[in-house]
Design a protein that fits this description.
Elements (H helix, E strand, L loop, with lengths): L1 H17 L4 E5 L2 H11 L1 H6 L3 E5 L8 E2 L1 H18 L5 E9 L2 E9 L5 H5 L17 H10 L3 E7 L2 E9 L15 E3 L2
Parallel strand pairs: 2-4
Antiparallel strand pairs: 1-3, 1-8, 4-5, 5-7, 6-7
Length: 187
Amino acid sequence: MEEVARLEKILKIILNSIEPFSLSISMVDIKGLVQEVLSGLQPLMSAKHITLKESISPLVDAFYGDGVLLKKAFDSLLKHAVVSMPDGEELMVSSQTEGDRLVFTMRHKANGMTQDDLDQFFYPHVTGTPESTILELPQSKIIIHRHGGKVDVLMEGEDIVLRVELPFIPVGMDKVPLGAASQEVPS
């Protein structure tokens, strides 16, 4: 029974990661979005005695993307960080601009991560923690890529570093007039 339940979880994650979706592009307060996600994770961080060190600068006046999907992606990435890090540690979240890209960096201690774990970070998997059933890491990477961005996972000493880069204007949206209404970008 346990193995069947585990297989059902894996199948659900796989199906979720291949589910087609389209982007609904509009102006997004990306700083507010990330801060809202962090605020929602505060009870889990408090329960694990995790300290948040946040340095999210006012990034840009106008950022275009799908706010709902980006929130889902950041929620999954940050929730995975909180769930996978040891109790009593520090989660560092920062942002900056580099040329025409927004860069978000998430850094935290990792429990026994190997190079194999890093290589398979975004592959569908289920861990023993109950919180893992709500993680959608594979889809997070797809959402970021669909916005013309990329996400890298690195190991620096004992820390795991997630670096998310997003262009100011998503791929396929060469010119978006300010104040433009939502625009569908097909999958």
